[in-house]
């Protein structure tokens, strides 16, 4: 029947999952076979990822997956593990929310001015870009001993196969790639004293990435050979590949811990205006550019829920829907919200400092967060169109935020555009489709998207009017 099975490993900041996608010429379905928590650990030296725990979760998932034709891995971006000369991992990978990059940007910009850095790499300023992390690590004993750097999905892939590579979409988040040549930005690396020899050779989505090692087959009960295929290993690259757009005039918002909002382009926008607006040019599938802005996303809510002792989310959202709209908003793009801890207080302080009513109950804080996110979505979608000179008639929301109907509706209202929400597991679907294409499924990106529109459950939200109120709220924030 021509149906093949692919295991998609998709690691998010708070959980990892292994899904099995079955793909035929006209069918696509996805089953979750294993989900496990991803809990960052704070040790005296800082915030770290438990990467061995994640690898164990991957193996458990592959065991559950059963017979598959290939495996693909995607995860959050920018973070990495270092290997010594024997290929052994040196310490636990540092979490991108760790404070080690505080104040590092100024050092970097003293060597390469921010404007030049943007022109060469197209990446928005974010303190956690690998470039700043490596500058922070400069001179450390660990980096001194390192002979290889592998980004998180590439590290797990190495453990599964014994083969090393650097997948391009994720490499583009290091800020060491030139988005025009889609190759290393040698000049930037040289001026910052970053050794590009640490990186394994680049590979592209769809490239072969080895086969499961005999020990892995034994541990998972799989029968070899099982190929590992490079996918858009940056989760956002996989998610954008799975935006079920049926034309070209669309904007997207990948929601989850982050909201990544913008456009898909065929060339980067490297203007000074674009830099000032903090838009990034990450690399996508098939020569595309993910022109987007990072917005704090549901992290704001996750952190509050954690502070409140994990109340029922459904009830909280219902209560938030009844709170009057747009009473107070915060800048959901502000890096001040990056670090964990004290989130309800930090949000209250931001409201107080900007002279707005201070949200008090969990329902009020939740409403403030959702209004603020919708407003940030509006601004990103609007700015992206203006800066790229392209317009959108529809906004696609994919990822975890699709479960939040209030957020989807508010985003439609704020943008003044219809929102199509779904699929929820976009990253896993993009991961599966790239594997399928590498193993015989015909079609380009548009073809993959048509398959998604035919097979996935999508929900449409129409804007309810009142865009002036959102405009006013935006002006209020800009003044504050
Ligand atoms: C989303 C994401 C974003 C990236 C952030 C940090 O999961 O990959 O695209 O900016 O995590 O890596």
TrEMBL record:
It comes from Streptomyces fungicidicus. One of its GO terms (molecular function) is glycerol kinase activity. Residues 68-240 form the Carbohydrate kinase FGGY N-terminal domain. Keywords: ATP-binding, Disulfide bond, Kinase, Nucleotide-binding, Rhamnose metabolism, Transferase. GO terms for biological process: glycerol metabolic process; rhamnose catabolic process. Residues 251-438 form the Carbohydrate kinase FGGY C-terminal domain. This is Rhamnulokinase. Pfam families: FGGY_C, FGGY_N. InterPro entries: ATPase_NBD (IPR043129), FGGY_C (IPR018485), FGGY_N (IPR018484), Rhamnulokinase (IPR013449). Belongs to the FGGY kinase family. GO terms for cellular component: cytosol.
């Amino acid at each position: 029947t021509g149906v093949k099975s692919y295991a998609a490993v998709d690691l998010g900041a708070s959980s990892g999952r292994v899904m099995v996608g079955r793909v035929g010429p006209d069918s696509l379905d996805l089953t979750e076979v294993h989900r496990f928590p991803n809990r960052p650990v704070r040790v005296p030296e800082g915030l770290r990822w438990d990467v061995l725990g994640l690898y164990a979760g991957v193996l458990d998932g592959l065991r559950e997956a059963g017979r598959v034709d290939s495996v693909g891995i995607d995860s959050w971006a920018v973070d990495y593990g270092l290997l010594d000369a024997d290929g052994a991992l040196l310490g636990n990978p540092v979490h991108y929310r760790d404070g080690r990059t505080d104040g590092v940007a100024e050092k970097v910009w003293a060597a390469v001015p921010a404007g030049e850095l943007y022109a060469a790499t197209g990446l928005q300023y974010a303190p956690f870009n690998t470039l700043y992390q490596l500058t922070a690590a400069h001179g450390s004993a660990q980096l001194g001993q390192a002979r290889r750097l592998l980004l998180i999905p590439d590290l797990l892939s190495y453990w599964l196969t014994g083969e090393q590579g650097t997948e391009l979409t994720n490499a583009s988040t290091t800020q060491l790639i030139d988005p025009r040549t889609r190759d290393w930005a040698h000049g930037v690396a040289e001026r910052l004293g970053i050794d590009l020899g640490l990186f394994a050779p680049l590979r592209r989505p769809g490239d072969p990435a080895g086969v499961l090692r005999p020990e892995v087959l034994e541990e998972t009960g799989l029968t070899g050979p099982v190929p590992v295929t490079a996918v858009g290993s940056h989760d956002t690259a996989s998610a954008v590949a799975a935006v079920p757009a049926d034309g070209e005039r669309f904007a997207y918002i990948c929601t989850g811990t982050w909201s990544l909002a913008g456009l898909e382009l065929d060339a980067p926008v490297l203007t000074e205006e674009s830099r000032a607006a903090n838009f990034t040019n990450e690399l996508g599938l098939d020569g595309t550019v993910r022109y987007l802005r990072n917005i704090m996303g549901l992290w704001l809510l996750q952190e509050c829920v954690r502070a409140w002792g994990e109340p029922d989310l459904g009830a909280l959202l219902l209560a938030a829907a009844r709170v009057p709209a747009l009473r107070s908003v915060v800048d959901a793009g502000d890096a001040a919200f990056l670090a964990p801890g004290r989130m309800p207080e930090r949000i209250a302080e931001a409201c107080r400092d900007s002279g707005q009513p201070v949200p008090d109950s969990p329902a009020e804080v939740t409403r403030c967060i959702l209004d603020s996110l919708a407003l940030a979505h509006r601004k990103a979608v609007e700015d992206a169109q203006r800066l790229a000179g392209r317009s959108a008639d529809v906004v696609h929301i994919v990822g975890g935020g699709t479960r939040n109907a209030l957020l989807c509706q508010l985003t439609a209202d704020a943008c003044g555009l219809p929102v199509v929400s779904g699929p929820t597991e976009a990253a896993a679907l993009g991961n599966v489709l790239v594997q399928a294409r590498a193993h015989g499924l015909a079609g380009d990106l548009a073809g993959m998207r048509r398959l998604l529109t035919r097979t996935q459950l999508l929900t449409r939200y129409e804007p309810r009017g009142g865009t002036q109120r959102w405009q006013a709220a935006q002006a209020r924030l800009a003044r504050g």
